[in-house]
From TrEMBL:
Pfam families: F420_oxidored (PF03807), P5CR_dimer (PF14748)
The keyword Cytoplasm is assigned to this record: yes
Protein name per UniProt: Pyrroline-5-carboxylate reductase
Function: Catalyzes the reduction of 1-pyrroline-5-carboxylate (PCA) to L-proline.
Gene3D superfamilies: NAD(P)-binding Rossmann-like Domain, ProC C-terminal domain-like
Substrates-to-products reaction catalysed: L-proline + NADP(+) = (S)-1-pyrroline-5-carboxylate + NADPH + 2 H(+); L-proline + NAD(+) = (S)-1-pyrroline-5-carboxylate + NADH + 2 H(+)
Length: 270
């Protein structure tokens, strides 16, 4: 019998995962979704051929439950689910900050929980998903999570103590690159280029740099040095980046994201 998977709270990240699972060969008839608004549920049914259900029904009939609500909504969702979750259900949380202990305390005793931090490039099968086992999760449960999230990109197992740091790096990571592209496009405007051309130049440079980072086997420092000609243009830009403390700003930014993930662990967002 095929395994049924339910995505509960199918918003941006839930839909990115769902669409990737279908591209990766999952049968839509094995996929259940839950949403707060009926119009959203219908939209998902029309778009993907998946079956919208209520949260309790998802808990009863799917083998694996993937919770993709906001951390602040996790307490209410788990309270609604708990009476309906049999002990052999695998529960996967994709929420920032929420610990496996938070879920284990609220679910029936012994329910296996796996914590995953994906990212939005799941939409183009280039996600980075970081996976940690809760105290009742076995190797088979981790493999199930890897199979699901592996259909939308790369996966990496880490100890749960590293999840908040990984959330800061890869969970939020795409946003930092979009922010850089936005800022560099503004620089292109300042330098007199039309916005669309500036955008295209920066995006293709980002793609080229990303592929070289992934495929060249070279350290990023070496790749940067290769661009930085003596007395040339690049070093003039690098000096300004250093003068403006961009490296320190990035370190502080990711530390703030890590700290916010820790704060979200309470599930109330305060
Ligand atoms: N957006 C991102 O890049 C990433 C988000 N995440 C995590 O994914 C989770 C969701 O984030 P987004 O998709 O950005 O938010 P979102 O707001 O787009 O999606 C959450 C969805 O859950 C629904 N929802 C809330 N309570 C519900 C309930 N009781 N029953 C059914 N549906 C319910 C909401 O209506 C909404 O559609 C968060 O916990 C976040 O930390 C993780 C990695 C990346
Ligand atoms: O901003 C957030 O809280 C979520 C978690 C990682 C990416 N987006």
């Amino acid at each position: 019998m095929s395994q049924k998977v339910a995505v509960l709270g199918t918003g941006k990240i839930g839909e990115a995962l769902l669409s990737g699972m279908i591209r990766g060969g999952w049968n839509p008839s094995d996929l259940l979704v839950t949403a707060r608004r009926p119009e959203r549920a219908e939209e998902l049914r029309t778009r993907y051929g998946v079956t919208p259900v209520g949260n309790p029904e998802a808990a009863k009939s799917a083998d694996t439950l993937i919770l993709t609500v906001k951390p602040q909504d996790m307490g209410a969702l788990v309270e609604e689910l708990a009476p309906h979750v049999p002990a052999d259900r695998l529960v996967i949380s994709g929420a920032a900050g929420i610990t496996t202990a938070f879920l284990e305390e609220r679910l029936p005793a012994g329910v296996p929980v796996v914590r995953v931090m994906p990212n939005t490039p799941a939409l183009v099968d280039e996600a980075m998903s970081v996976i940690s086992a809760g105290s009742h999760a076995t190797a088979a449960h981790i493999e199930t999570a890897e199979q699901i999230f592996g259909s939308v990109g790369q996966t990496l197992r880490v100890p749960e103590s590293q999840q908040d740091a990984c959330t800061a790096l890869s969970g939020s990571g795409p946003a930092y690159f979009y922010y850089l592209v936005e800022a560099m496009t503004d620089a292109g405007i300042l330098l007199g280029l039309p916005r669309d051309k500036a955008h295209d130049l920066i995006v293709q440079s980002a793609i080229g740099a990303a592929v070289m980072l992934r495929d060249s086997g070279e350290h990023p420092v070496k790749l940067r040095e290769n661009v930085t000609s003596p007395a040339g243009t690049t070093i003039s830009a690098i000096r300004e980046l250093e003068n403006h403390g961009v490296r320190a700003a990035l370190i502080a930014a990711l530390e703030a994201a890590r700290d916010r993930s820790r704060e979200l662990a309470s599930g109330n967002g305060n």
